[in-house]
């Protein structure tokens, strides 16, 4: 007798129009995987390792210690743990992919490299390059500036940076530093001073030590010792401590101007008390005062 006839033989009643069976215990010799099968299985039930478990048993379960389980875990009678698969999270606030900025920067460098040195021609090409952009391609322009800087094309760096600042974009300390360096190499001290005065009046309390060092280095390259002292006075007023290279430039400026007393006071206050020397093939940290006494 097969399984269906066995069930009908034991549970059939002629007066019943419907048969509702909660569960039937079957012996293992009939080849069933589970010792209990449900004939009125709900549509939201699912099987895990041969066990029929409905979703209603997952929610609100507790372990043996009475602690409630989270919605992502539940324990069956046989110790089977069900885990809910987490869906892929979507973050709509993530910034857009900028993978194409490198290609745009390369295209920009290629366009302006073939142009004459006239400012009008360069600006016209740059405006045409951004004509179909929804937003200003700031990342691409910054990458293009880095490429031009690595190629020592300082005139192009000045033109692109001034065009970008004229659009009200890229007003950062890194852009100012790149432009001041280009002015220094190209010998445009007057334009560098104009830019520096604008930075002082606009970003008084947020000027970095790097920009101060850049301006002092520019004046030192063009032998403008009095300007170095002026920039150092601004640093001291804003509480910006110079680095070691800037300290040497300022001390040299005091010496060239014949201000030996101020030079000594300056070195005593700002010169580092420690110095690294090479001794027996190793880099050793020693006191600068001890070295001066030995000399």
Protein described:
With 295 residues, the chain is mainly alpha-helical. It folds into 3 domains: 3-81, no CATH class; 100-171; 184-295, Serine Threonine Protein Phosphatase 5, Tetratricopeptide repeat, CATH 1.25.40. It is 49% helix and 10% strand. The protein has helices at residues 3-11, 101-113, 119-129, 138-150, 154-166, 173-186, 189-202, 209-221, 225-238, 244-256, 260-270, 288-294, and strands at residues 24-25, 36-37, 45-48, 51-54, 73-75, 81-83, 274-279, 282-287. The strands form 4 sheets. The chain has a two-stranded antiparallel sheet with strand order 1-2. Strands 3-4 form a two-stranded antiparallel sheet. A two-stranded antiparallel ribbon has the order 5-6. Strand 3 and strand 4 (51-54) form a beta hairpin. Helix 6 packs parallel to helix 8 (209-221), helix 9 (225-238) crosses helix 10 (244-256) and helix 10 packs antiparallel against helix 11. It starts with a helix and ends with a helix. The model is unreliable at 6-13, 15-32, 34-61, 69-78, 91-95 and 291-295 (pLDDT under 50). Keywords: Repeat. PPR repeats lie at residues 208-242.
CATH architecture annotation of the largest domain = Alpha Horseshoe
Q: How far is the N terminus from the C terminus?
A: 113 Å
Class of the largest domain in CATH?
Answer: Mainly Alpha
Main beta sheet, described?
2 strands, antiparallel
Strand order of the largest sheet: 1-2
Please give the domain count. 3
Q: How many individual helices? A: 12
Oligomeric status of the shown chains?
single chain
CATH topology of the largest domain: Serine Threonine Protein Phosphatase 5, Tetratricopeptide repeat
N to C succession of SSEs: HEEEEEEHHHHHHHHHHEEH
Helix fraction, binned, reads 40-55%
Rg value: 39 Å
* Molecular shape: elongated
Instruction: Give the beta-strand count.
Output: 8
What is the percentage of strand-forming residues? 5-15%
């Amino acid at each position: 007798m097969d399984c269906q006839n066995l069930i009908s033989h034991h549970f059939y009643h002629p007066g019943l129009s419907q048969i509702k069976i909660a569960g039937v215990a079957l012996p293992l010799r009939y080849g069933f995987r589970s010792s209990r099968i449900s004939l009125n299985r709900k549509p939201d039930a699912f099987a895990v390792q041969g066990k029929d478990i409905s979703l209603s048993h997952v929610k609100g379960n507790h372990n043996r210690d009475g602690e409630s389980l989270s919605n992502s875990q539940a324990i069956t009678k046989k110790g089977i743990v069900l885990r809910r698969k987490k869906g892929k999270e979507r973050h709509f606030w993530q910034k857009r992919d900028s993978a194409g900025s490198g290609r745009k920067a390369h295209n920009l460098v290629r366009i302006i490299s073939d142009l004459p040195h006239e400012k009008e021609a360069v600006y016209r090409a740059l405006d045409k390059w951004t004509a179909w952009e929804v937003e200003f391609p700031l990342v691409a322009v910054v990458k293009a500036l880095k490429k031009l800087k690595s190629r020592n094309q300082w005139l192009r760096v000045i033109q692109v940076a001034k065009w970008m600042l004229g659009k009200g974009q890229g007003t950062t300390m890194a852009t100012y530093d790149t432009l001041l360096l280009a002015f220094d190499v190209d010998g445009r001290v007057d334009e560098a001073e104009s830019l520096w005065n604008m930075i002082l009046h606009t970003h008084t309390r947020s000027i970095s030590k790097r920009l101060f060092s850049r301006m002092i280095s520019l004046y030192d390259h063009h032998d403008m010792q009095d300007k170095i002292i002026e920039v150092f006075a601004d640093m001291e007023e804003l509480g910006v401590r110079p680095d070691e290279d800037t300290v040497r430039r300022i001390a040299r400026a005091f010496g060239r101007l014949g201000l030996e007393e101020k030079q000594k006071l300056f070195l005593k206050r700002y010169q580092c008390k420690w110095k690294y020397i090479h001794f027996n093939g190793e880099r050793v940290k020693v006191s600068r005062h001890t070295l001066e006494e030995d000399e």
